[in-house]
Task: inverse folding
């Protein structure tokens, strides 16, 4: 079975996000004064083969913990769904 | 009312994603041969003040189209939710 996992990674709360601060500044310059906070993270979409959703989740957890995220500065969330045939993005 | 909008941005399908290809290569080296494709995008979380969810969505759409995404190479999705008091990430 094919699965699509999404690993979303952000800097932990409390760690300064210079990219987010720059975007917030640009938005304010454009007139968006309603913006209070901007945080920029990564969204990593991984298509993979697995026996089931549990195995896929376990593999993604290992990938995120060992390679994708920096556990000192970053927090992550994993979402898994079965990939529908023909669906593509 | 406070809202939290998430603008997720990917390179359009068909446009080569060198970052994704590099991560796929690293995962394979680590032994994850089940990985078929990796695409890396941005997840931009914006906290903002708006009258309602519709206004918040309209503002986020404008931010994404004018500043955050490059309409030539990137596709984006916007999710809006009301920010619960005390919730933070």
Result:
């Amino acid at each position: 079975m094919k699965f699509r996992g999404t690993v979303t990674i952000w800097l932990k709360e409390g760690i300064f996000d210079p990219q987010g601060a720059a975007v917030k500044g640009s938005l304010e310059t454009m007139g968006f004064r309603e913006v209070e906070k901007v945080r920029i993270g990564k969204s990593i979409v991984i298509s993979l083969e697995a026996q089931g959703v549990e195995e896929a989740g376990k593999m993604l957890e290992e990938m995120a913990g060992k390679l994708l995220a920096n556990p000192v500065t970053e927090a992550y969330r994993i979402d898994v769904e079965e990939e529908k045939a023909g669906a593509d993005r």
